[in-house]
Amino acid sequence: MRVLICFLLCSVLCFGQNEENPKTLNDSAISIYKNNPKKAISILEKSKSIAKAQNQKFEEARAINGLGLVYRDLGDFNMAIELSNQATKISADSLLVASAFNNIGVCKRQLGEYKEALTYYLKALDLYDALDEKLKEATVTNNIGMVYSYLGVNDKAIEYHLKAKDVFEALDNKKGISEVYNNIAIIYANDGNLQKALSYFKYSLNIEQVLDDKKGIAESVNNVGAVFYYLQEIDSAMVYFTKSAFIEKQIGNYAGVGASYNNMAQVLMEYNRAKEAKKYIDSAYYYATTYDVAVDVETALQNYSQYYEVTNDKDKALSYYKEFSKVRDSVLNLETTSKIAELEIEFQTEKKEKEILSQRADLAEKELDLSKKNIYILGLGALAVVLGLLGYLFYNQQKLKNRQLKKENQLKDALIKIETQSKLQEQRLRISRDLHDNIGAQLTFIISSLDNLKYGFKIPEKLGNKIKGISEFTSTTIHELRDTIWAMNKDKITFEDLQIRISNFIDQANLAAQNIKFNFNVDKSVDSDMAFTSVKGMNVYRIIQEAINNAVKYAEASAIDVDISMQEDAMIIRIKDDGKGFNEATINHGNGLNNMRKRSEDIKGQLTIQSEIGQGTTVEVKI
């Protein structure tokens, strides 16, 4: 009996010690914090107290940084930054410090402080690289891609995301793969490739559901809803936004709730339900300001401006628009973008310099080995052998020096190329943002003002028609401006991009001219990976757009066919209608036909127009 009692007592003591072990508590909290943040906070606070009492500095710092991770996911970014900074002061462990730096980088990105975010990401990346932590290094690389995505530098963003994706797939890390697909989908959505974005978001959502990651599910559900909104499938969008807000509330992430409410408000306002939208804007603004989520504050202010404009309170609309502009300019400005580009160049330069120093050290070791061998051989032998070895040594030294110089020149060229590309991207980004933010906003204001004139005053019918014509012309200008910005933001335009753009335009034309049947066919011989320069791709798109517009306006056609095929090394684009046709010799060539000919000449293409009275018209471009 005494033996049994001792055994039970030892079991209880051992169990108690295991339960009070800070390492076990930390591991337990980190494993559940995504789905049960409140319980995780309780466990981590307990672990912190025990570790401090037992003078376990590493586990104390780990518990504090763990709290930083939880508060980050709950949207309290300033608290998360404070905790992770505190953890780095308690323990200098490289793995822990790298985790803290990455967490601070995520919080800074969410607060719109992109330069600081990239600084911390690069510090974390350097530490993980030195520790050979491939998985964590890939996570930080993916996060850097998100910074460039927010700044609109999409080529750079995709480069970092794909680099991270290769590592995640090699390690079969499902969570990492899901996050990469989610981030790339956001870029496709911003570029207008909605079907591709939807496919990527759904793929990410499936992975999050398999992992049962509530926060990941909420984010993916919200993104799917956004794509359905852009596809004008409003009922589906509202279902997904509502589901996202519900999950975010469940896990206590009220910053995420704000984002969902902003989305729901935009949907309702677009469909003339402004009064219903107001409560969602109020809630979104409350959560965004409470938890300092810069992007959601900006969106909420923009929603307020649009709401008061719709309800004809012009003073408040203007006031909120000014606030929105102020927040937007403080979050995203050219100086910040420039500094981030400079920061990355400095990081890449430092990395290359370390590689050069490492190569020099290796060369020095090799030279030392050769010297020892030479001394040994000199001790053994003849003058002829000594002279031969000295000649061999001199030859190798020259060869190594030449190779070293070649590598150093290659590294310098690479750095110059990186710097040049960054500066060019900065210029293109500045111009496209100026077009979008200044000219685009002014044209939108003109349309709004014309609509207010039409509905706010009694205007004669003739003047009303004139105002309507100006409004329609301004709307067309906005669409053309967006097309131009789309082309400017790309180094090259793939045929797949061009095909999607043409298809979207034909869909819009089909809605506007319901009595005309449109057919768009691409022959299998056309390579979808073919790429044009942004200028050439834009000219091809404009020629097709002009030909379709002419057919819709003047041909009185019942069918318009657009066919693209390949003949040997040339692409053939043919736009054909069955309309009334015309005699080219007798008509006055307007701007439309002249513009098509000029654009065709600019891209070294051959444009032919065939038309007969009553037989329709065919426009053919050979590129």
Helix content: over 70%
**CATH architecture classification of the domain at 493-622:** 2-Layer Sandwich
Query: Which topology of the domain at 493-622 does CATH recognise?
Result: Heat Shock Protein 90
Q: Using only CA atoms, what is the Rg?
A: 32 Å
Order of strands, main sheet, comes to: 2-4-5-7-6
Structural class: alpha+beta
Q: Helix and strand string, N-terminal first?
A: HHHHHHHHHHHHHHHHHHHHEHEEHEEHEE
Average pLDDT taken over every residue: 80
- SS elements, strand count: 7
Largest sheet: 5 strands, mixed
Output the CATH class name of the domain at 493-622: Alpha Beta
Structure overview:
Among the domains are: 335-450; 493-622, Histidine kinase-like ATPase, C-terminal domain (Heat Shock Protein 90), CATH 3.30.565. The termini are far apart. The chain has helices spanning 2-19, 22-32, 37-53, 57-73, 77-90, 94-110, 114-131, 134-150, 154-171, 174-190, 194-211, 214-230, 234-251, 254-270, 274-290, 294-310, 314-331, 334-380, 383-456, 461-488, 495-512, 534-554, 591-602; strands at residues 492-494, 517-522, 531-533, 559-567, 570-577, 606-612, 616-622. Helix 2 runs parallel beside helix 4, helix 14 runs parallel beside helix 16 and helix 18 (334-380) runs antiparallel to helix 19. The chain has 623 residues and is of the alpha+beta class. It has a five-stranded mixed β-sheet with strand order 2-4-5-7-6, with helices on one face. The protein has a two-stranded antiparallel ribbon with strand order 1-3. The chain has 23 helices and seven strands.
